[in-house]
């Protein structure tokens, strides 16, 4: 009982209090917000601030939401397909290359990305400062983690299902997409939710690989309201609130599925 109460208090302090501070600050005028005090606004301007933030720089935030949505949906879809297929092949087909491939997957989890060589590669491919180029970056950076999750879960699926499908005349692709992939729903939900939040909230990769106002993602719009000498704290926190709500809703709705997918392989194994 004491531990539960302590955990609840800690959760409130860590998560709820900062969110309330953002909400209150985003409802103030510029002078009131500049004090950065945890207090109710002297003059409630929530909707006025929201409209001002949306209209800033010719509706840049709206364009950024479109860019971030496209980036997130396409990147996560590619992660699911590629990681599930690689995890299936690594788990089901033993070969001399498995050790090397496993080492490369682990290296992808451990070795940090190199920014300048990556930019050189993108420039050589003609993909630098383009949305397709950033999509490939997001997929490459997250693929190792997704492969590890899928491989652990696929190990819990009996091989007899593969044999039965092959005896019924299924090809390799039919076996994967019609038999195996539907059984991967728990871990797929985990991969989708975790990477959706990660890609949508990504700040550094769009900053490095997708410069330009036309290509801005939601996180980069934070620069609209702060500069070296002045910061509009009410607009800045309103921007933070608007770009925080979508991933927060996704996380709250699928929290249980995330935990189930992360632990399913270990529990069944």
TrEMBL record:
The keyword Cytoplasm does not apply. The lineage of its organism: Bacteria, Bacillati, Actinomycetota, Actinomycetes, Micrococcales. Keywords: Cell membrane, Membrane, Transmembrane, Transmembrane helix, Transport. The chain crosses the membrane at residues 7-26, 64-88, 100-122, 134-154, 175-200, 233-254. Residues 65-254 form the ABC transmembrane type-1 domain. This is Raffinose/stachyose/melibiose transport system permease protein. One of its GO terms (cellular component) is plasma membrane. It is found in: Cell membrane. One of its GO terms (biological process) is transmembrane transport. The keyword Transmembrane helix applies. It is a multi-pass membrane protein. Belongs to the binding-protein-dependent transport system permease family. It comes from the Bacteria. CDD domains: TM_PBP2. PANTHER family: ABC TRANSPORTER PERMEASE PROTEIN MG189-RELATED-RELATED, SN-GLYCEROL-3-PHOSPHATE TRANSPORT SYSTEM PERMEASE PROTEIN UGPE. Pfam families: BPD_transp_1.
């Amino acid at each position: 009982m004491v531990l539960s109460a302590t955990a609840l208090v800690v959760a409130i302090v860590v998560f709820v209090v900062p969110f309330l501070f953002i909400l209150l600050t985003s409802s103030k005028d510029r002078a009131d917000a500049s004090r950065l005090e945890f207090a109710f606004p002297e003059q409630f301007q929530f909707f006025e601030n929201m409209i001002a933030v949306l209209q800033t720089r010719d509706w840049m935030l709206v364009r950024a939401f479109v860019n971030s949505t496209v980036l997130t949906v396409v990147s996560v879809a590619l992660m699911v397909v590629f990681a599930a297929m690689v995890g299936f092949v690594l788990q089901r087909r033993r070969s001399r290359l498995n050790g090397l491939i496993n080492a490369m997957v682990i290296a992808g989890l451990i070795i940090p990305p190199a920014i300048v060589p990556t930019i050189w590669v993108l420039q050589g491919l003609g993909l630098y400062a383009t949305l397709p180029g950033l999509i490939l970056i997001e997929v490459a950076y997250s693929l190792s983690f997704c492969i590890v999750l899928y491989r652990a879960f696929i190990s819990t699926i009996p091989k007899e299902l593969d044999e039965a499908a092959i005896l019924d005349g299924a090809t390799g692709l039919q076996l994967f997409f019609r038999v195996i992939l539907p059984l991967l729903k728990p871990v797929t939900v985990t991969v989708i939710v975790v990477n959706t939040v990660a890609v949508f909230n990504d700040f550094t990769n769009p900053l490095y690989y997708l410069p330009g106002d036309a290509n801005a993602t939601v996180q980069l719009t934070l620069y609209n309201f702060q500069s070296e000498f002045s910061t509009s704290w009410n607009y800045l926190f309103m921007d933070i609130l608007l770009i925080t709500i979508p991933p927060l809703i996704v996380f709250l709705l699928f929290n249980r599925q995330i935990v189930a997918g992360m632990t399913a392989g270990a529990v069944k194994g």
